[in-house]
Amino acid sequence: MWIALGAMAAVGLVVGLVVAGRVSPVATFVPSMVLLAWTVVYALDVNRALSFIPAEPSMHQIVRDAGLGDKTLLTTGVFALLGVVLFIPVLMPSRWSRPYDDEDEEYETTPEGSYY
What's the pLDDT tens digit per position in 21-49? Predict the structure, then answer.
């Protein structure tokens, strides 16, 4: 129980840093599209969406446990929620602009009356 709670807290911290930080908007756009696309596939065809989750006995036990967690998150709508949360910062224009830098305004001054 404590390990699961700690893992969710760590994931929440990382998502919060990515969403609130000045990271490239592509860093939130790509995972949001993956999560939302998987949710749409789940809404249209449940069996196909669940077939992407590894469940074969040939897989390592940790991978199968992670797949069980993925199934739970997908069926309860948490992936849709995370997809929307990660997509919201993409819509903010200030995220796509470069931060203002004082060095941007440095340019060579030309003497008065010169051609260039």
Answer: 777 788 888 999 999 999 999 999 999 99
Exposure b/e, 54-91, CB count within 10 A at least 16 = b: eeeeeeeeeebeebeebeebbeeeebbebbebbbebbe
Cα separation, 41 vs 19, in Å, equals 25
The string of DSSP letters for 2-62 reads HHHHHHHHHHHHHHHHHHHSS--THHHHHHHHHHHHHHHHHHH-HHHHHHTS---TTS-HH
First to last CA, the chain: 71
With cut-offs at 50, 70 and 90, classify the pLDDT of residue 98.
Answer: low
Q: Which two tokens stand for residue 25?
A: 């908007």
Mean pLDDT over the full length of the chain: 79
